[in-house]
What does this fold into?
Amino acid sequence: MTMPAPDLREAARDMPVNSLGFRKSPAQTRVVVAMSGGVDSSVVAAMLAAQGYDVIGVTLQLYDHGAALAKKGACCAGQDIHDARRVAERIGFPHYVLDYENKFRESVIEEFADAYLAGATPVPCIRCNERVKFRDLLQTARELDADCMATGHYIRRRDGIGGAELHMAADANRDQSYFLFSTTQEQLDFLRFPLGGLESKAETRALAAQYGLAVADKPDSQDICFVPNGDYASVIEKLRPGAADPGDIVDRDGNVLGRHRGVIHYTIGQRRGLGIGGLGEPLYVTRLDPEKRQVIVGPKEALATKIVPVTEVNWLGSEPFEGEIAINARIRSTRPPRPAILRATGERRAEVELLDPEQGVSPGQACVFYASEGTRVLGGGWISHRRGG
It folds into this structure.
């Protein structure tokens, strides 16, 4: 008598869900971990390996090693690649280094330079997540037959009725949701963020020590990885010769108050370093006009903004992106979300009305949308230009 073949689908349904959300054993679940060489991603890789997952570590070489080796405190530099490799060797999982220099330059660095030349204040870390890590690297993870890709970002992913949802990290001081607003729904379904539920960075370092990782006490990166010592202007001058041409500092009526050493050296809201003291009330940079090579200054109240137009909107909400939606909005990574009204003005365009004016709203920065109650990230967009109100 021939016995019926076992129903594999029935068996899968009976299998408990593992910590990454799959109905199979950790050993049968392949996860690619994006490893920067820092303590966060190293802990993720070690933690998942300890739980029995089929871990593959991948580190991206994003720019020239020669320059990288001379720079400490930035991700994806030469030392960081070495650190990631050492973690993989200690824990015992395969590790690969991928040369993404050209992708990174084309997708992130070139736009960064052009944005500054246009008088904007760009956030290249968001573009890197959007165009390199969560697009190109994620595709590589799929090609490696991974079930998911994990990163060391401090943000939470939750399964909701309509699919995966993005939520702020448990530790508000470490929350990185501002830098991940452009994560698409398709990407979010594939991504995992194991550190998002930790209450403090101290917990992460304690885990690193527990796993015997040499990076347990490694300092956090502070600068943009390709900008040595935070000197944006020198990088832009190197990429775009002549970008630092001097010009006039003028008031809102066009009266010349002084000279500046290049628009790229200034940002919206800046007060110090203008070289125009002794004029009475303090003056702040309120606008940049690269075409006229002018830095426009005014009193602090001139910085107040209520209406913020945004473009390239990425929407992660359950409801359709239309009409008016009550949200909390964050217009800088260092500021908490504030109550606002989101108005859709096109398929990927919107206007955000801040209930209380914010100062220093700058084109090129992100405006991130959060649910009016709770921790859910609803998406966001890029601030296109500033209007008073």
Observations:
- DSSP finds nine helices and 17 strands in the chain.
- Residues 19-229 form a domain with the Rossmann fold fold (CATH 3.40.50.620).
- The radius of gyration is 23 Å.
- The chain has three domains: 19-229, 244-298, 303-383.
